[in-house]
Design goal:
Blueprint lengths: L7 H15 L6 H7 L4 H14 L2 E3 L6 E3 L2 H11 L2 H17 L2 E8 L2 E8 L14 E3 L4 H7 L4 H10 L13 H14 L2 E4 L6 E10 L2 E11 L8
Antiparallel strand pairs: 1-2, 3-4, 3-8, 4-5, 6-7, 7-8
Helix pairs in contact: 1-3
């Protein structure tokens, strides 16, 4: 049974803030109007309300919008509520220091991997992931680590809800091939993102579980020329 939604203005406000959050620079009213299926007058009214509440801020010179600093407080509060971040931090730091590669920590939310923590290496490697951002499960090492331990019913539901779109030329976009890959992950107890989620980046992922309950996953990311891919 489909969930009945209330507050269409809230949904539209979320679409606006999501669009702004996904951009590396501030955005104009024109950009929002061109990319969102919301009328321009409605976008402007919602922006004014969001600005009043501190959710967005407008540059007085460029007239462009960016997210407000209130999200920093919200983000910090959400991060504090995830005990897994505090519990795993010392181990992830040790892993980062020993490998000199970037280490990531994530959980699953709404069929996506949400990045909770990211410990950068000293290498000048540009990763598109950011704390609070999301990644596709079928293309990322952490995501496939999660999927490998899904029940057949839960995996079928995920595949029915998630289009397997290519992020790189190496992304697995065939459900049968993905299932075979997940079977391999179950046998070897680690997952591989072989330049499937981001060009030139190779990742190894592991599930975090206790008493058969999954709490999260972590991965090690490096240039694909660095790791010896014997798996």
């Amino acid at each position: 049974m489909a969930t009945k939604m209330y507050g269409s203005v809230l949904i539209k406000a979320k679409q606006i803030t999501d669009f702004i959050a996904d951009k590396n620079t501030s955005v104009s009213l024109k950009e929002l109007d061109e990319h969102l299926e919301i009328t321009k007058p409605t976008i402007l009214k919602i922006l004014r309300t969001l600005e009043y509440c501190g959710f967005v801020q407008q540059n007085t010179e460029t007239k462009k919008y960016s997210l407000g600093t209130v999200f920093l407080r919200y983000g910090q509060k959400v991060a504090e509520n995830f005990d897994i971040k505090d519990l795993t931090r010392p181990f992830l730091e040790q892993l980062r220091d020993e490998t000199n590669e970037t280490v990531n920590l994530g959980i699953v939310e709404k069929n996506s991997v949400v990045l909770l923590d990211k410990l950068e290496s000293s290498r000048s490697v540009k990763l598109v992931s950011r704390i609070g951002g999301t990644m596709q499960m079928y293309s990322s090492a952490m995501g496939k680590a999660f999927l490998a331990y899904y029940s057949p019913e839960k995996l079928t539901a995920y595949l029915s809800e998630t289009p397997l779109k290519p992020l790189t030329s190496h992304t697995i976009t065939d459900a049968v091939e993905l299932k075979k890959n997940l079977e391999k992950i179950r046998r070897q107890n680690f997952s591989i993102d072989d330049v499937e989620n981001q060009l030139d980046i190779f990742c190894v992922g592991f599930i975090i579980q206790k008493n058969a309950k999954c709490y999260g996953a972590f991965s090690i990311s490096a240039p694909n020329t660095v790791l010896i891919k014997k798996y």
